[in-house]
Every structure is written in C-alpha cells, then in structure tokens.
Design brief:
The chain has a single domain, classed as Molybdenum Cofactor Biosythetic Enzyme, Chain A, CATH 3.40.980. By secondary structure, it is an alpha/beta fold. It is globular, with a radius of gyration of 14 Å. It has a 6-stranded mixed sheet, with helices on both faces.
C-alpha cells in the first residue's frame, strides 16, 4: 500500500521523512508522493490531490502554531464542510512533547497529523495507531 506525505510549516523534514519511512516499512506501507506547503490554501490543495490518489495521508508539522496558520485551526475549518464528525477524530498521545497528533478518518480515508520532531513522531506511531492502520487497510 502507498500513502502520501505533506509537510506543513515543518522543520527537520528529512529526519521526519526518514523516521516515518521506518515506521511505515514495519507495516508494509510506502510513501508515494512527498510534498510541502507553507500556507493553509496550499495545504488544502495538496490534501485534495493526495486524497484523490490514496486513502492514507500523513501531515507533518504545523501543530506548534496557533491562529489561522496552525494546523489544528486549518483542519478544523476544512473539516467543518465535510461529513467528518467529532467521533471520527482521535488524539494521538505525545509523552515526549507538547503537541498532540491527530487521526482523522472518513469512510476508508485517513489523515494522520504528526509533529515535526522525529523522536516524537516515532513515539506517536503507537501500537494502537499501527493496529488501526492494519485493520483499516488489511495490512
């Protein structure tokens, strides 16, 4: 199975990509397209393109920002116009850092938002997240 990765206002992108690839390899998932965006509008365009290609998209970065450019605000506004309900959104625990990650699902499509710190990203790829991905995508 393949998934897309979108960096949003992210730092340490090469380290994060390497960490994510390692986690994904353990469940036989490969990165398809890797892109970056620096504005909410660009993120929306990249996310629409990614979801038209594959059912699993990772967004790394933007969780430490607040206001109109913060990832949580951007996703909240974008998802308010969809069929996603609060029960479709799960917080991903982060014992190492301050930002939570998020798992957002709608039917067979999933968006996973993670912080842009490789050590936190690896920790947040928990057994529960792995089990969810394996079950949802029959991995």
């Amino acid at each position: 199975m393949k998934c897309d990765l979108i960096f949003y206002l992210a730092r340490k992108t090469s380290y994060c990509e390497k960490s994510l690839k390692k986690q994904l390899a353990e469940i036989s998932v490969e990165l398809n397209v890797v892109t970056a965006s620096t504005t909410p509008l660009m993120l929306g365009e990249k996310l629409i393109a990614s979801l038209s290609r594959c059912n699993l998209v990772f967004i790394i970065g933007g969780l430490g920002f607040s206001g109109k450019n913060g990832l949580t605000d951007v996703l909240s506004k974008a998802l308010s116009a969809t069929k996603v309900t609060p029960s479709d959104i799960r917080k991903l625990r982060n014992e190492t850092g301050k930002q939570y990650g998020y798992l957002i699902r709608c039917a067979k499509q999933t968006i996973v938002a993670l912080p842009d710190k490789p050590e936190e990203l690896a920790e947040m790829f928990s057994p529960a997240l792995v089990a969810y991905l394996k079950e949802t995508y029959s991995l």
